[in-house]
Specification:
Strand content: under 5%
Number of helices: 3
Radius of gyration: 34 Å
Largest sheet: none
Order of helices and strands: HHH
Distance between the termini: 87 Å
Helix content: over 70%
Length: 103
C-alpha cells in the first residue's frame, strides 16, 4: 500500500467516523486475509510439486522394470518375465521342501 493511498484511506475513514484504532484493525485484518490467501497458494503449489515428484519416481521405477525385462531377454513381454520368475521361485521352494524331507 503506497503512502498516498494510506493517507487518502485515513482521510476517508476519518470522515466516516472511524477511529484510528478501527482503521488499523481493519488494515491488519486485510493483510491477514492477503497473506492467508498467499499461504493457500503456496500450499497448493507445494502439493502439486510433491505429486509430480511421486509421479516422476513411479515413472522411473516403471522404466527401470521395463529395462530389466528387456535385459533378461523377454523384449517387451512383461507377463512372460513374471511367469519365469514365478516358476523359478516355485522350483526353489519345492526343492527346499524336498531337502527338508530327506534330512
Amino acid at each position: 500500500m503506497s503512502q498516498i493511498t494510506l493517507k487518502i484511506s485515513l482521510l476517508e475513514s476519518h470522515k466516516k467516523g472511524i477511529t484510528m484504532q478501527d482503521y488499523w484493525e481493519k488494515r491488519e485484518e486485510a493483510w491477514d486475509d492477503y497473506f492467508a490467501s498467499s499461504d493457500a497458494i503456496r500450499e497448493r503449489y507445494a502439493s502439486e510439486i510433491k505429486d509430480l515428484e511421486v509421479f516422476a519416481k513411479s515413472e522411473e521405477e516403471y522404466y527401470e522394470y521395463l529395462w530389466k525385462v528387456q535385459e533378461a531377454g523377454f523384449g517387451t513381454d512383461c507377463e512372460a518375465y513374471e511367469a519365469n520368475w514365478k516358476r523359478t521361485i516355485e522350483y526353489y521352494e519345492e526343492r527346499q521342501e524336498n531337502d527338508r524331507v530327506y534330512v
